[in-house]
């Protein structure tokens, strides 16, 4: 597992003297900067606040749901996010580049729309990862007929303002390590399942589960990051058409260009991720995008000999499809809830328990159902 190239969301919260780091020695909030190709010459740059950039009507649906939840008190985060309107770029006395009170250290990742840079806060001495995005460019990039890349960022900001869970990331963490065995993979998978169950109970579809978006702390706890393509639903109707995730982690029904259930697609990606953690390779990969999609839809999953039979059953359950059907039915696969109770996942630790957050939204939904 490696460092994600473009993930997380960076916002800074107000901290009182009594607030401290979490159990992993990490801060729970971060910083987001959107730049329009400004340099470190003392010029100001605007942050992309929602009042500054209006999303298209199709994206506003998620925003309306999020606003409704906030007004109803269904927000997990206890401390509100601080929003800073200006990014002042300058240099310190030693010539180091700075943004506001943050000193530039080094670049740690990059993506299609920007980069991730490690900074040190001169006020508290702590390290922060800043996601620097090109706002003017993103406003022009169409990711769907009525959506721009900036729409995705605004939705990501809104979603992450709501969340507070030990397996959901608010801070970019350096991920290091080489091969993973069964013990480590089981631990990581349990954390992934726990975090994803939390998201799904809040009617949030992640949309891009993969190793690069799973961040491991110094205490070996996994946190799910990158909500740039995530979607929020008002109820259990999680039907989607757009499939913006990473191709090799795409569920077969998504490859067929039809509407699909977001929760089931997330769970498929969990299966691909587990396969990668155990075997160090993708289960379905072609030389071209179309060939990759063809293999995802038409090829059975291949698992080499010598793998734990319980693990084989789990992988086949997560990545199975009825090749006799022309249209893939996600109901043929193992659900996330069934995965949490699978014998290999349970091991000696017991079933993965659902996290009950302070906002009560998940409890409310379960009660209504």
TrEMBL record:
ATP binds at residue 131. GO terms for biological process: intracellular signal transduction. Residues 102-345 form the Protein kinase domain. CDD domains: STKc_LKB1_CaMKK. Keywords: ATP-binding, Kinase, Nucleotide-binding, Serine/threonine-protein kinase, Transferase. GO terms for cellular component: cytoplasm. One of its GO terms (molecular function) is protein serine/threonine kinase activity. Signal peptide: none annotated. The keyword Nucleotide-binding applies. InterPro entries: Kinase-like_dom_sf, Prot_kinase_dom, Protein_kinase_ATP_BS, Ser/Thr_kinase_AS. PANTHER family: MAP/MICROTUBULE AFFINITY-REGULATING KINASE (PTHR24346), SERINE_THREONINE-PROTEIN KINASE GRIK1-RELATED (PTHR24346:SF39). Belongs to the protein kinase superfamily. This is Protein kinase. It comes from Brachypodium sylvaticum.
């Amino acid at each position: 597992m490696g460092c994600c190239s473009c993930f997380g969301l960076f916002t800074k919260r107000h901290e009182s003297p009594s607030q401290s780091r979490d159990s992993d020695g990490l801060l729970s909030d971060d910083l987001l900067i959107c730049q329009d190709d400004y340099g470190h010459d003392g010029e100001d740059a605007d942050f992309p606040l929602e009042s500054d950039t209006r999303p298209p009507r199709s994206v506003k649906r998620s925003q309306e749901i999020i606003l409704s939840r906030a007004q109803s008190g269904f927000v997990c985060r206890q401390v509100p996010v601080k929003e800073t309107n200006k990014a002042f770029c300058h240099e310190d006395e030693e010539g180091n580049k700075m943004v506001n009170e943050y000193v530039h250290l080094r670049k740690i990742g990059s993506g299609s729309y920007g980069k991730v840079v490690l900074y040190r806060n001169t006020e508290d001495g702590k390290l922060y990862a800043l996601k620097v995005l090109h706002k003017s460019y993103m406003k022009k990039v169409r990711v769907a007929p009525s959506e721009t890349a900036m729409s995705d960022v605004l939705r990501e900001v809104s979603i992450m303002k709501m969340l507070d869970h030990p397996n959901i990331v608010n801070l970019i963490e350096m991920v290091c390590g080489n091969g993973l065995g069964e013990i480590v993979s089981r631990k990581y998978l349990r954390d992934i399942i726990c975090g994803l169950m939390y998201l799904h109970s809040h009617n949030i579809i992640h949309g891009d589960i993969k190793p690069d978006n799973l961040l491991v702390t110094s205490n070996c706890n996994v946190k799910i990051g990158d909500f740039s393509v995530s979607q929020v639903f008002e109820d259990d109707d999680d039907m989607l058409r757009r499939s913006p995730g990473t191709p090799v982690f795409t569920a077969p029904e998504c490859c067929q260009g039809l509407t699909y259930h977001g929760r089931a697609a997330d769970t498929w990606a969990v299966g691909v991720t587990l396969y990668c953690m155990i075997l160090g390779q993708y289960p379905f990969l072609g030389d071209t995008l179309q060939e990759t999609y063809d293999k995802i839809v038409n090829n059975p999953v291949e698992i080499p000999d010598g793998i734990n039979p319980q693990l084989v059953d789990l992988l086949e359950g997560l990545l199975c499809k009825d090749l006799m059907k022309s249209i893939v039915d996600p109901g043929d696969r193992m659900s996330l809830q069934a995965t949490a109770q699978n014998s290999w996942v349970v091991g000696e630790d017991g079933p993965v328990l659902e996290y009950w957050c302070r906002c009560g939204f998940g409890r409310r939904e379960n009660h209504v159902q």
